[in-house]
Amino acid sequence: MHNQFGCGEIPEKYTDYKKASAVILPVPYEGTVSYGKGTAAAPQALIKASYFQEFYDDELGCETYTKGIHTLAPLKAAKNPEAMVNEVKKASAKILKDNKFPFMLGGEHSISYGLYLALKEKYPDLGVIQIDAHADLRDSYEDSKYSHAAVMRRIRETCKDTAQIAIRSICREEADYIKKEKAAVYFAREISGKSAWIKGMLKKLPKKIFLTFDIDGMDPSVLPHTGTPEPGGLSWYETLHILREIFKNKDVVGMDLVELSSDKTSRNSDFLAAKLAYRMLGYKFFTKS
Ligand SMILES: [Mn+2]
What pLDDT sits at residue 264? Predict the structure, then answer.
């Protein structure tokens, strides 16, 4: 049974909830998706793919699982987006109360607001870093304030310390909002192939960070299976470089990886996402902050 995230079969003592440093919260929610479906199957596909990776992280020279990674049963949230957000918040708050590091696997991006609310309650000085092709700054979308397309707008109502990375698709309303609010948006066309901007971005943010990673921030040639693939995204090594700098310089207190859209005909994206998830945990626990 593929119900625990981890490379190969992680020995039981490293998946035990009590001893785990990190807790994976799968949320296979697909309530407000606009275009391609398939993200509801993604957490399970990612977890399944994670069984075929190496325990050893060749970049970090460590075996990340030894920090203890527990995977919760998938959260079967209500279809209604507002109710779903409350359920995600409750599940996230429990993980935080137990002093464990929450790592949520989506599911669509609307789930991130629930984890954000729980983190913000515990860490009032929280900052937010989003990697995404889309700014998600609409005030509402398809009659929902809790749509995936409005998640950063909701977050910015209570947190202006945000950085949005690899953005390359916005509407007029979002462009006007970014200008008016002077929101820190690092457009893909401006940062592609460059890294000098990272230092300046980090300097403007508080120490405690919620990292929300919409996997469509990566280029579709690297990660084709996502709901709304946009050309001009981050490469594998660009992604890792940005993440490494974030984890090295900040205290990431919670994170998510959303919008993978599993496809039965290809394992490429599932496997990439699993590897990325394991590397993110490695950065969290094996790089200094
Ligand atoms: Mn997106």
Answer: 85
